Amino acid sequence: MQYAGGDMSLEFLILGLIHASPKTGYDLYKVFEDDLQSLWTAEQRQIYHALHKLEEQAYVTCELVVQDGSPNKKIYSITPKGEAALAEWLTTLLPPQPTRYDWLGQVYLSNFVPADMLMPLLQSWKERVIQQRIKLEEDLGNYQAKLQILPDQEQILILKIKVLEYRFMQNYHDLQWISSLITFFENLDQQQADKLINQILEQYPISDFQPDGIID
Prior knowledge:
mainly alpha, Arc Repressor Mutant, subunit A, two-stranded antiparallel sheet, elongated
C-alpha cells in the first residue's frame, strides 16, 4: 500500500487513538486540543472527514448512542481490518513530505528591506518560540504527573515523552537559530558568506552519525 502522508497520516493517527479506546468525534477533538497540540493540529471538520473515510474503508465501526436530554452521539471502534491497516502503517517508511516554512521565505527575501525594519519581526519570532517552550514544559509536567498516578501505563507514556523530546530539540534549535539570525542582522556589515558556510559545515558534521570508516 502506498501512503501519501498528510490527510492519510491524520486518518491513521485517529485510528490509533480509537485503537487505544473507542471514542466519539468530540473525544478525538479534545485529545488533539489537550494532548497532541505540540505534535499535530486538527480541526473538528478534518476529524469528522477522516472518521467518514475510515468508516468507508471498514477500518472503524460506528455505534449510535441515544441520550435522553442530550444530543445523540456516535462512538467509533476499530475493526480487525483497521488493526491490520494500522499495524502496516506503523511499520512503513512514509514518503518525505513537502517542506514549506513561510517565515523562512521571509528571511530568504529579506534583502529587499532594511535590516532595522526586520528586527521587530525577528524579536516577535523569538518571543513566539519562547512561548512554545513554556507550553512544552507544561505538557512535560502533565506527563510527569500521569506517571505518578498511572504507573501501569509507563511504557505508553514514555513513547509520548520521546515524541515531546523531539519537539523540545526542535524548539531549542529554533531559538538558537533565531538568536543567531538576530546577531547576524545586528552585525550585517561584518559578515562574510565564506565564513558562514564554513561555520555551518563545522557545526553540523554528518560524520557524527556515520559508522567509523563509512563515508558516502
